Amino acid sequence: MTAAVPIAIQGVRKTFSTAGRPETTALESVDLTVGAGEFVSIVGASGCGKTTLLRVLAGLTAPSGGEVRIGDRVVAAPDRSVSLMFQSPTLLPWLRVVDNILLPLKLRGRIGAHERERAGQLLDQVGLADFGDRLPRELSGGMQQRVALCRALIAAPTVLLLDEPFGALDAMTRDQMNLDLHRLWASTSLTTVLITHSISEAVMLSQRVVVMSPRPGRIVDIVDVPLPAERHGELIDSPQFAETAARIRSHFARH
Amino acid sequence: MTAAVPIAIQGVRKTFSTAGRPETTALESVDLTVGAGEFVSIVGASGCGKTTLLRVLAGLTAPSGGEVRIGDRVVAAPDRSVSLMFQSPTLLPWLRVVDNILLPLKLRGRIGAHERERAGQLLDQVGLADFGDRLPRELSGGMQQRVALCRALIAAPTVLLLDEPFGALDAMTRDQMNLDLHRLWASTSLTTVLITHSISEAVMLSQRVVVMSPRPGRIVDIVDVPLPAERHGELIDSPQFAETAARIRSHFARH
Amino acid sequence: GPDGGPAGADGKGGTITFGISTPTMTANFVALAVGKEEGFFADEGLKVDDVFLKDSGTVLQAMAGGKVDIGTPTPDVAFAAMDQGQDVKLIYNWARRPVAAFSVLDTSPITTVRDLAGRTIGVQSISAGTTTLAKASLTQAGVDVNRVKFVEVGLGAPALDALQRGRVDTVVQYDAQSSAQISAGAKLRLISPEGVEDLFATTFVSSSAFLTSNSAAVKGFGRAWSKASVWALANPEAAIRIMWKLYPASKTGDGDKAMQNALAIFKARMDSAVNVDDVTAKKIWGQYDESAVQHWLDFAHQNGITKSSLKTSDVYTNADVPDYNNFDAAAIQKAAAEAK
Amino acid sequence: MTTSAPTAGSTGLPRSGELPTSKPRRSWARAVRRWIPSLVLLALILVAWQFVPGLTKTEEFIFPPLSAVLDRLTTPETLQLYFSNAWVTTYEALIGLGIGLVLGVLTGFLLGTFPAARRAVYPFLVALQALPKVAVAPLFVVWFGFDLTPKVLVVVLLAFFPVLVNTMSGVMSIDQDKVDLFRSNVASRWQMWRHLLFPWSLPGIFAGLEVAAVLALLGAIVGEFVSAREGLGVVLQQQQNTYDTAGVFAVLIILSVIGLLMNLAIRLVRRTALSWSTSEGAEL
Amino acid sequence: MTTSAPTAGSTGLPRSGELPTSKPRRSWARAVRRWIPSLVLLALILVAWQFVPGLTKTEEFIFPPLSAVLDRLTTPETLQLYFSNAWVTTYEALIGLGIGLVLGVLTGFLLGTFPAARRAVYPFLVALQALPKVAVAPLFVVWFGFDLTPKVLVVVLLAFFPVLVNTMSGVMSIDQDKVDLFRSNVASRWQMWRHLLFPWSLPGIFAGLEVAAVLALLGAIVGEFVSAREGLGVVLQQQQNTYDTAGVFAVLIILSVIGLLMNLAIRLVRRTALSWSTSEGAEL
Ligand SMILES: Nc1ncnc2c1ncn2[C@@H]1O[C@H](COP(=O)(O)OP(=O)(O)OP(=O)(O)O)[C@@H](O)[C@H]1O
Ligand SMILES: Nc1ncnc2c1ncn2[C@@H]1O[C@H](COP(=O)(O)OP(=O)(O)OP(=O)(O)O)[C@@H](O)[C@H]1O
Ligand SMILES: [Mg+2]
Ligand SMILES: [Mg+2]
């Protein structure tokens, strides 16, 4: 297993300009360091630039200013050690579910029995064991999202970037998958950045929570989560949890 | 303003069959009555048939068995008095935001200054007043979802069907929009069916909550919400609220 | 014709649609331009509406469809059409000799048709009229057609290229093509087909229905055409300039070169086919020779062009020939000579 | 409003989930029923063809009645002639179509993914296309002789362009999302072509191929018109030269049938290749 | 792994949000820079054209050097001739293209949305397409005379099919989601066409139109070959007949330029019509 890598974001700016309209500043001088193997969540109002930031981290969008480093690599293009789960499932309609999951491996080289087995395990974990040979259009919205998650996990990345991975899931499934994700993160040296709209999910899973605010998109607070490394459902009733959640929520109320 | 209409669902079944695979039973003998002007929420695990049921109500999918009546009309095709907000935003990429919102009116006849003004108001309410002349691809995921909501509301329907309308919104925006939706519903004679993954949202907004369970999709419980007609944020701390939410949650735990 | 034909029921005056079986105006048809410009058609009360069509078949089909009154097919196609039951009559014998010949490089040892034995002959296509003519000529000259190799070289540049590269020993082609190639700088020698000299070529036809209802118009058209031919023969350069004026697209290349080209084509046709001795001697324009028609019919039948045996009396008429020739040739020659 | 449209799915567009719920009928019976409209129309056309020329007193050498044409098509001797020549023409068309398809798809990908290459090369391809093939075919004969090559070249020239344009248009209409998925997996350009752009453009490529197939037939005929020993183009000219209009129509029918068969083959392949797509999977 | 690809966006595909962030440069300067590759290639082709025929000792009547062709194109008298005839041909091509476009789009919508109609009619349209236009054009002359009609008809026959196939393919590839949006709003069939299928199919229709435009030119020439008084087809044949190969090439150049101009016009209209789409908006 490879060693965990840190992420360093320095003064990142991003503006979008369309002819005939004022520029949109999606990100304004964002500074953030994610430690090697750290789990950081990002919360913030809709449209505050969370997705844009994640895309910059993934090397998909070039920042208008500033720099991102992952390990000692300056991010200028996507890298195979970084896995991104998009906000919308983005499954290829012509591939069966299992082939959609295996796509990253296919792009990395050959696929053998071992890889197929691994895809089956992932599908099983997300409760879709019977759906491997379906086409995406035969799946419900939440099912598609789970398939996209499997795809992000299959290549065993060292950096995992998740954009609202559980938005379309019911509370029960969501809790289950939160736990699974936490376990995966804890058992590997995986630097993880998660975008979520659920404050309790953010607190429950991460070591730090980044709060962003819109127009222009910037970081307004970084909250340490004072919970033990090992997380479980009962922690939600702890005073530390409530406190942390309240502090995060306060930023929303103010806005 | 037109009078509110009830919805009667009787023995609705829906199976999907694809050559070479066993049939999927998405809905099995679903019976449900939604009173005229009632607000009903549907919760249930991912893939349990919620979207399928909503599509049957909207007349988009013919049931394999059973019947749906809206008012005294047997649903066999879509009707203009029924408005459906899809699970994914489904905006037309070639139309600007405001034209996407106005589309239902355009399909109903002419669009005048009054209608444009109404679209502007709706955009303002969902916090996108400045984004009317953008193209959908310039919006974030949550912004697109809000535009889709505006589009569902603009034609002033008598039946409103919402498929996870707030899934991509942060808690703050979501609370705000919940309140707005409640106010809209209360002030008009609007029969509303809402699919949500948030149990508290379901309890907060609706008069009854329908709990569905998967494989095959069926109704396992219908929970009355013992809260006053007028809803506000504080109710969340009432014992009735907690009780109702717990009862609903119990179905998820069991599954 | 029933539509598009002459308007005058008395047969005097009206419009004649003249269907020409080459796709563009060439010096071959310079008489058409002269007839229009010098008023020979107008003198007969006629307006000529000329249409250039892809080939003889198209002309005859257009005639059957009532879109053409008088056409200029080659006789083989005209006979094939009669064989199919179309109402066609040959009315004006224009090109009285075969207008196709064997072209060889001037360095070639081949000088007679007989020399072609065992050689490779380029033809436009196996089914072209020129191919049939070539075979007939070879047979007449005692050459075994089975010992000759025919190669399809198409028309124009590919044919000339095949000849120059020695892919074929000779090419059978129309006069207009060989003279154009010579004008373009190719060093060619022509060998006329032997034994088939009376197989006349491009000829004027109409339908007997049209002949009956528009007899005067046909007579007038023939006469105007004869007059224009005489005029053009008397002053070819002026005639060609008239053609250029009325058909600007027919002038290709610049000044002198263009005139040389056009004159070469005009002369080739006039010398070899139209202005042959009997015409100049007896001044009889448009007349068919019964024996030549019979030869043609036999030839067509032998080569499978016609299935039934047509009778000469049914296929042509000389009835209007006196009218075609009823004019003062000397006056026209004089007028032509004075033209610039 | 208490009434509703009488029939569901009256838009004629596929209704999601509207797959047949009853047990599948015997498929040949269904296939026959599906083709009834087509067969009825065919019968109508054929009847009209037989009787309209007679009623309008159109002469046989202008527009022969069906029976005269069928006569040609049933005489063993002419049929034999047609068949051997049809094979030659089909062979030329298929080879040229194959080359045009491969060239068109590859060029389409290249020009679709490299904007600079597109700007540099595409105008010349358009200019090349605008040249009348009837005018350039003789040049091919001069350069490449009288055999297969010049005919195949004409076919390639005609078949290439629709495939190119459709591939390019498909490639350029790709979703940003999907491209980003591949970019984030550091897909090579070839992988992007093979696993994303190719399946994505496939509906467009098939559309281009359908157009290319009929153009390939026309190209083969045009090539044969310029110079050829055999092929339907030669037969066609022969029959035009001998004023055998019924024969010309017989050849035209054969060409139509070849065109239809090629189209059918393409649509069959497409049905398999695009089986993942509802709208394509449902129809042939 | 500590290295990364040296350049961002090296796939050549548009990067989302990669719009220029610096101030827009003077646009003519950018336009010139964008076209440099094309101009360089043009220069190379022209130089080769001038010198290769001489070096390979190709005779002028087979392949004239550029100078001979330019000579034709600069003589005022011939130029005048070319221009007036080019206008005739362009006119025929444009009218036929317009009719073919409208027919193709409408038929494409009809056949794309009514599967029964598609099964009934489409095979006959394919069969019709497989008929060589050079062989049917004479029939049009018999039926419609010698004026504009038969030429325009040949153009329509050729231009119609690519538009039809592409429209149909576009219509049939529509997302179920979007159709459902319109169905749930009880859109009439016309509204579905106008507001959904038309904008959706527009990229495909433009692709079909690009193919149709060059075919329209070919069709006009083929039509003129059968019967015409004027037009570039006439000039072309005239010059072929007199072995004026330089003249033939001059006409071919003019045809190429007309084809290019038509293509440019189409792409300009497309750029406006599809401005909502990144990939189309970014390029010409
Ligand atoms: N391609 C684009 N072109 C123009 N503007 C864009 C583009 N992508 C994003 N934006 C703008 O940038 C801002 C941030 O968008 P982003 O998608 O990062 O938001 P987000 O925080 O992910 O929101 P959400 O929670 O709704 O997904 C928004 O105002 C959006 O309109
Ligand atoms: N078009 C289809 N073809 C085949 N199966 C389908 C189709 N649409 C839905 N299904 C199946 O029907 C079941 C119910 O799907 P549905 O979309 O109604 O679920 P849902 O409750 O909305 O789930 P989610 O919360 O994830 O959106 C699923 O098992 C799904 O795979
Ligand atoms: Mg986002
Ligand atoms: Mg759903």
Automatic annotation (TrEMBL), chains A, B:
Residues 7-235 form the ABC transporter domain. Gene3D superfamilies: P-loop containing nucleotide triphosphate hydrolases (3.40.50.300). CDD domains: ABC_NrtD_SsuB_transporters. One of its GO terms (molecular function) is ATP binding. It holds the Pfam family ABC_tran. Keywords: ATP-binding, Cell membrane, Membrane, Nucleotide-binding, Translocase, Transport. It comes from the Bacteria. PANTHER family: ALIPHATIC SULFONATES IMPORT ATP-BINDING PROTEIN SSUB (PTHR42788:SF17), TAURINE IMPORT ATP-BINDING PROTEIN-RELATED (PTHR42788). This is ABC transporter ATP-binding protein.
UniProtKB/TrEMBL annotation, chains D, E:
Pfam families: BPD_transp_1. Residues 86-270 form the ABC transmembrane type-1 domain. The chain crosses the membrane at residues 35-52, 93-114, 121-146, 152-175, 196-226, 246-266. It is a multi-pass membrane protein. It is found in: Cell membrane. InterPro entries: MetI-like (IPR000515), MetI-like_sf (IPR035906), Tet-R_TetA/multi-R_MdtG-like (IPR001958). Keywords: Cell membrane, Membrane, Transmembrane, Transmembrane helix, Transport. Residues 1-10 have a biased composition (Polar residues). The keyword Transit peptide does not apply. It comes from the Bacteria. Residues 1-23 are annotated as: Disordered. Belongs to the binding-protein-dependent transport system permease family. This is ABC transporter permease. It comes from Plantactinospora sonchi. The lineage of its organism: Bacteria, Bacillati, Actinomycetota, Actinomycetes, Micromonosporales.
